[in-house]
Amino acid sequence: MRPAKSRGQNFLTSAGVADRIVGAAQLSESDAVLEIGPGLGILTEKIVARPRRSLTLVELDPRLAVRLEERFTNIRVVNADFLAIDFAELVSDSQVKVIGNLPFNVAAAILRRLCDNSRMISKMVLMFQREVAARIRATCGDDAYGALSVFTALYWKIDLHFIVAAGSFHPRPKVDAEVLAFTPLATPSFAADDERDVLETVRASFSAPRKTIRNALSHALGIDSVQTVRALKRAAIDPGTRAEKLGVPDFLRLAHALRAELAGRIVTRNA
Asked: Are 253 and 158 contained in the same domain?
């Protein structure tokens, strides 16, 4: 089975690494498990050997989906693009644990989709290209800190990470990978009604990294600079600072300030 480069396929070949990934999920016989991108099934094999209540696999490649159905019984195989399927259709339980060696070329997009459905997830153990993983777990002040870092921190606590050498894959990628374990925050960062405003604020703030946050917001949201400055001052943020200097609490305050300044509505334009 030749890996498809266009689909970002790099198959994990290390049984030891697979054991460590699945072990980090702390599976129990009451758990419903969702695996994204099972590929040749090395993680699936380890999941099947552990206690769990149910297992669903989502595999984009129809060749691999057929092989998985033939190899593993009593599990559900969904041959589909994870980014195009309704998450609720994959999860019959109120909570699910998610495991995956994510395709490097769409890993960040998959994580964002999982964030959108975080209330249905009890734990995630996912593998990313090391550079992307560094951005995900970066905190304010780190060189890799950016919008992806903030988006992740709004939903998850990262309680484990470890590096997987490039030699653990076939074909061998040019860079190492990194595994991250995510647990949903015990207390949500924001109310459900505030989610859209918060996410749009973060996205707009990082839309022009070399600009001050005042200019980035005014351009991305299509609002008057005077209104932007008033909102920033209301949130106790220096209009001359840059987005990478702000932490999650700053963005939460800023989202509320922008909504108040604009009478409850963040006006966006395509950016």
From this structure: no
Domain boundary among 154, 184, 214: 184
Beta carbons within 10 angstroms of residue 60's beta carbon = 22
pTM of the prediction?
0.91
Cα dist from 152 to 40, 101, 143, 223, 263, whole Å? 29, 18, 16, 27, 28
User: From start to end of the chain, where are the E strands?
Assistant: 11-12, 32-36, 54-59, 76-79, 96-101, 121-129, 156-164, 169-170, 177-184
- Give the model confidence (pLDDT) of 153-186 as tens digits: 999 999 999 999 999 999 899 999 999 999 999 9
* Radius of gyration of the chain measured on its C-alpha atoms: 20
Burial bucket for residue 11 (CB in 10 Å: 0-12, 13-18, 19+): middle
Q: Is residue 68 domain-shared with residue 101, that is, in the same domain? A: yes
Q: What is the DSSP string of 6-20?
A: GGT--EE--HHHHHH
Where residue 38 sits, what CATH number does that domain have? Answer: 3.40.50.150
Claim to verify: residue 149 and residue 256 sit in the same structural domain: no
Nearest to 75 by CA among 58, 63, 57: 57
Q: Among 203, 179, 81, which residue's Cα sits nearest to residue 130? A: 179
